[in-house]
Amino acid sequence: MSSAQAPAHRERTTTIPAVIARVVLLGAVLAVVAFTVPIAVAQQQWMWLVVMLLAAVAIFVVYSTKRFIPGKYLLPGTLFLAVFLITPIVLTIGYSFTNFGDGTRGTKEQAIEQIVANSVQQTDDSTWYNMSVAVDPGGDPAAGPFTLLLVDPASGEVLAGDAETSLEPVPASDVTVASGFVTAAKDYEVLDARQVNTAYKALQELAVPVDDTSAVRVQGANQAFVGTTALSYDEASDTITNAATGETYTVGKVGDSEYFVGADGKRAFSQSWLQGVGGENYLRLFTNGAIAKQFGAAFVWTLVFALGSVLLTFVVGFALALVLNDERMKGRRLYRSVLLLPYAVPGFISLLVWSSFYNKDFGLINETLGLSLNWMGDPTLAKAAVLLTNLWMGFPYMFIVSTGALQAIPNDVMEAARMDGANRLQTTVKVVTPLLLVAVSPLLVASFAFNFNNFNAIQLLTEGGPFLPGEYTRGGTDILISMIYRIAFGGSGADFGFASAVSVALFALTGILAAIQFRFTNVLEDVN
To answer: Which is nearest to 219 in space by CA: 136, 156, 127?
Structure first.
C-alpha cells in the first residue's frame, strides 16, 4: 500500500464507528417516533406530538450529515432544556388562564357522558352481562377510551360498545371466550384484572348507550348491567333533559365556569369542563381580600425563611470554617469530617427525624431540656423549629464553601493587614470577609433561591401547620410553594388553574428577587 493510500484508509476506518453510531441513533429515534405517534394521536396529546416530531426532525437534520458541527453538541442540551424546563413553564402559564381542576379536567363531551352515565339506574328486570374491558391497540389502559366486551350468560352472545357506539353483536370468530368472559378480541387489547382495577374510577363514568332510554353501566370488576337512563342530551339544543321530571338543563355561567344549570340559574350537576377564563385567576389572586392576605402573609414568611436560612447557615458555616482554618488547631480533619455528617444524611430523613424531636409529649428536645413547649401547635415556635432544622441541614454546605474560599485567600494579604496594625478581628471583618464574599456571593444567591422554594423543609417537617380553625389553604409555616401545593392538591378540591396563576406570580417574584441580589453582588466585584 502506498503512503498516499494509507491516510485515506485510516480515515475510512476511523469513520466506521461514527457511521454505525449515527445509524443506531437515527434508527432508535425513528423507532420511538413510530411507537409514540399513534399513542399521542389516540390520546389527543397534540402539543407533545408536535414537540416530539420537531425534536425528531431536528435530530435527523443535525446528525444525518457532516454539517452543523456545533449543533451536534448543542442539540441534546437544547432538547432537554425545551422538554423539561420551557415546556412545563409554557404549560403552567397556559393552565393559569383556565379553570383546570376537580370536575373541570376533561372536555365538554366527557362531562356530558359522565352526567348521563351517573343517571343510569338499575331496575328489577335489568339484564346482566359478563364484562371484559378493552382498548384500541396502543391505547392507554388507565384512561381509555374503553370498549366493553359483554357476554350474555344465557345465550353466550358477545356484544361490544363504547361511550359513543351502541351495543353491537361481535362475530364469534373475532373473539376468544373462556369461562364466560372474552379473553381476546380482534382489533382490541383486552385488559387484565389489575389494569381494570387501575382504570375502575374511569370505568364508573362510562355509559354505553343501548337506546334512547337505556344504557350499560359497569358494576364491579367483571359485571355490567343494562339500566334506565334518567337523563338524555340533545346536541341540537345543547340541553340535558330529565325524563322523570321533564326538567331541562341549559348551559349557564356560574362563577368563572360554565355548567348545566336549572331554571333557577344554579348548577344542576357538579361536572363542568376545561375552559379558558382569561385573567380571572390573576384577578382573584390580587383582588380577593382573603386570598391576597394569605398570599401576602405567605410571601413575607417566605422571605423571612429564605433570608434567615441563608444568613444563619452562612454565619455558622463561616464561623466554623474560620476556627478550623487555624493551622494551630490539632485534629482539624476529624472535626471537619464530623461537621459534614448532617450534609451526608438525605434531607428527607433528617426532616422526618427532626419532626419527631419536636413532639410536645415525648420529643427529644422537650425531654432533654425539661420543657413542655408545643412546637408544632404554636405558629411562632413552629417557625423557629423550621429555621433551626434548616440551620442543621444547611450549615455544612456553607462550611464547605467557606473553607474552600478561605484557603484560596493568599496568606500575604492577611500578613500585610497585620503589618498595618490590624488585629485578628479587624483582619477577619475588613479583609477576609469581603474577599470571601466575592467568591461565595453567587452561591448565597443560589441558596436564597433554593430556600425560597424549599418545599421539602416545610412539608416534611410541619406539613405547613399549625392551621387556624377552618383554614385549609395556608398554615402558619406555609411558604408560597407549599401553599400552592395545598391549593392544587388540598383536601378542599384541586384547583390547578388558580395554583398555576400563583406559580406564575411566584416565578416572577423569584426572578425579580434574584435580579436584585445579583445587582447587589456586583458591588462586591470592586473589592479587589
So the answer is: 127
Find the farthest-apart pair of alpha carbons in the chain and give their distance in angstroms, rounded: 106
Distance between CA atoms of 134 and 146, rounded to whole angstroms?
6
Angle at 493 between CA 456 and CA 207, to 5 degrees: 125
3-class SS shares of the chain: helix, strand, coil, % to 5: 55, 15, 30
C-alpha cell at 26: 437515527
Count other C-beta atoms under 10 Å from residue 44's C-beta. Answer: 9
Answer whether 225's CB lies under 8 Å from 126's CB: yes
Q: How many residues does the chain have?
A: 528
φ/ψ (deg, to 5) at 63 = -100, -5
Please name the residue that has the C-alpha cell 383486552: 190
DSSP bridge pairs for 267: 261
- C-alpha to C-alpha distance for 325 and 499, rounded to whole angstroms: 47
Q: How far apart are CA 41 and CA 491, in angstroms?
A: 34
158-161 and 214-219 as β-strands: parallel, antiparallel, unpaired?
Answer: unpaired
**By mean pLDDT, which of 267-271, 456-460, 478-482 is the weakest?**
267-271
Q: Would you state the pLDDT for residue 232?
A: 85
**What does the angle CA 144 – CA 149 – CA 150 come to, to the nearest 5 degrees?**
140
pLDDT value, residue 10? 47
Among residues 144, 163, 118, the alpha carbon closest in space to that of 271 is found at: 118
Name the helix (H) or strand (E) containing 504: helix 496-521
What's the angle, vertex CA 105, arms to CA 104 and CA 110, rounded to 5? Answer: 90
d(CA 42, CA 491): 32
- Once rounded to an integer, what is the mean pLDDT over residues 35-62? 84
Between CA 22 and CA 16 the distance in angstroms is 10
Q: Which of 31, 40, 91, 90 is nearest to 59 (CA)?
A: 31
Torsion angle, CA of 482/487/489/492, rounded to 10 degrees?
130
C-alpha cell at 132: 371484559
CB 438 within 8 A of CB 524: yes
Strand partners, 257: 254
Integer angstrom CA distances of residue 322 from 251, 398, 403, 416, 439:
70, 12, 8, 18, 15
Residues near 159 by beta carbon (within 8 Å), at least 6 away in sequence:
129, 149, 150, 151, 152, 167, 168, 169, 170
End-to-end CA distance of the chain: 63
75 by Cβ neighbours in 10 Å (0-12 / 13-18 / 19+) ranks as middle
What is the value of pTM for the model shown?
A: 0.75
CA angle 305, 306, 311 (to 5 degrees): 100
